[in-house]
């Protein structure tokens, strides 16, 4: 996956950054993603401490497409007219990923879940080590759910990776499946972070 996104780590007034950016970009077809709010693991301990020290401010991880970066920078420049905003870091992002595993004993339930992995969003794939193991035991037919053997069983484990928005779309759908255990939703960064000066954002 080549870098297709940018992650902008911004510090500014609490509850304000995302709303301003979305409002400013409304009608341009530009989407911005608040990574932490969507469940991505991207807030290290040092940021939590910085949030606590800042008081009244927050640190937000906005993810935007490379082709939309100039429009987002324009929105952030406009934001400077209303409040102090600081760009803490900037990362090139290649995509996103998460681990999953599940065991299902109902054939119809298994078919529903498996369909989600067969009809992946555009730009999303399963890792090479992903495995689905299906077992059918006719001799166990009619046994109760708590019995050690089941007439049908589907086990799966693997990783989903690819386009940020596509991976997030699949993760959202799988959250509704109680039997699917999901690992951390992560951004796949490309190289070290760019760390600007500590002055307010000036692009």
Mind explaining what this structure looks like?
The protein has 203 residues and is α+β, with helices and mostly antiparallel strands. Helices cover 26% and strands 33% of the residues. It contains five helices and nine strands; from the N terminus they run E-H-E-H-E-H-E-H-E-E-E-H-E-E. Strands 1, 2, 3, 4, 5, 6, 7, 8 and 9 form a nine-stranded antiparallel sheet that branches. Helix 1 packs across helix 3. The longest helix has 12 residues, at 107-118. The protein is elongated. The two termini are 27 Å apart. The model has no long low-confidence stretch (mean pLDDT 84).
Report the average pLDDT across residues. 84
**Share in β-strands:** 25-35%
Q: What structural class do helix, strand and pairing data support? A: alpha+beta
Question: In whole angstroms, how far apart are the ends?
Answer: 27 Å
Largest sheet: number of strands, sense, barrel closure: 9 strands, antiparallel
Number of strand elements = 9
Helical percentage: 25-40%
> H/E element string?
EHEHEHEHEEEHEE
List the uncertain runs. none
Q: Radius of gyration, Cα only, in angstroms?
A: 21 Å
Shape descriptor reads elongated
Number of helices: 5
